[in-house]
Design a protein that fits this description.
The chain is α+β, with helices and mostly antiparallel strands and 239 residues long. The protein folds into two domains: 4-94, Thrombin, subunit H, CATH 2.40.10.220; 107-237, no CATH class. The chain has helices at residues 13-22, 83-94, 101-104, 110-114, 119-128, 131-141, 146-149, 157-164, 171-178, 187-194, 201-208, 213-216, 227-237, and strands at 4-9, 28-31, 42-48, 55-66, 73-78. Helix 1 packs antiparallel against helix 2 (83-94). It is flat and about 55 Å long. 28% of the residues are buried.
Length: 239
């Protein structure tokens, strides 16, 4: 039987760092969306960095499972965790972006390259640039480049989730993300959208109807979600 793969996503870098301080630094991990395993089960944990395309995978054993209450989820212990593994995880957590090959060889850092570019070039870079260029553009120019970033054919799900979470996201762009079926398959993108207080009731309903019932049951307890989203989840559960 193939080893089960548990994907763990984080809403932002602060959430990942909090998980590192609470569990990862001690050789463990927690998944709030996993309750169908048994203590002692072996699996592969895959951590997904919210700011980059990087992942970190490790073999782990289920330590405990809580299927009800505020701490619903499963706790895991890595099978192999020593000084090297700890350093690797810490480097993964603190890595904001993977440099391009040109940057590794001493080329001008991306933030320096973009700061004085004309707006037309910035928008073109947002539509066609590398991952590190897109991250730098979004951080430095924010809503000025969101529309162009969302047109990039290779934009990653973590990038989309980061934009979807923005409270200042224009409604047409918010609707563009909600209406993209491929993007909406990502749990990370769904969580980001549901946390956005500009989400309309209809948009919230469309997202919530894509959740399996086991996940929908958790939504009314998520205080990070607006009350309108939590109430919409309750209505769907009582249908």
């Amino acid at each position: 039987m193939a080893t089960r793969r548990i994907e763990i996503y984080f809403d932002d870098a602060n959430a990942l760092k909090a998980e590192f301080a609470a569990n990862l630094v001690c050789g463990g991990a927690f998944s709030a969306n996993t309750t169908d395993m048994e203590p002692g089960d072996i699996c592969e944990i895959v951590l997904n960095h919210p700011e980059t395309e990087d992942t970190y995978a490790a073999s782990a054993r289920v330590v405990s499972v809580v299927s009800d209450g505020p701490q619903t989820g499963s706790a895991f212990a890595f099978l192999y965790f020593g000084r090297t593994e700890k350093s690797d995880i810490e480097a993964f957590v603190n890595c904001e972006q993977s440099p391009d090959p040109a940057e590794k060889t001493g080329a001008q850092p991306v933030f320096e390259r973009i700061k004085n570019l004309p707006m037309a070039q910035l928008q073109k870079m947002a539509r066609e640039g590398s991952a590190s260029e897109r991250v730098a553009l979004e951080r430095k120019f924010g809503n000025t480049v969101w529309a162009d970033l969302l047109k990039h054919t290779r934009i990653t799900l973590p990038e989309i989730a980061r934009i979807a979470r923005k409270g200042a996201l224009p409604l047409p762009l918010l609707d563009k993300i909600v209406s993209n079926a491929a993007w909406l398959q990502s749990p990370q993108v769904k969580r980001a959208l549901l946390a956005n207080r500009r989400l309309s009731k209809e948009q919230a309903r469309r997202i919530l109807t894509t959740l399996p019932r086991s996940e929908l049951l958790l939504v009314p307890r998520q205080v990070s979600y607006p009350s309108s989203v939590r109430e919409a989840a309750k209505r769907l559960l009582h249908k």
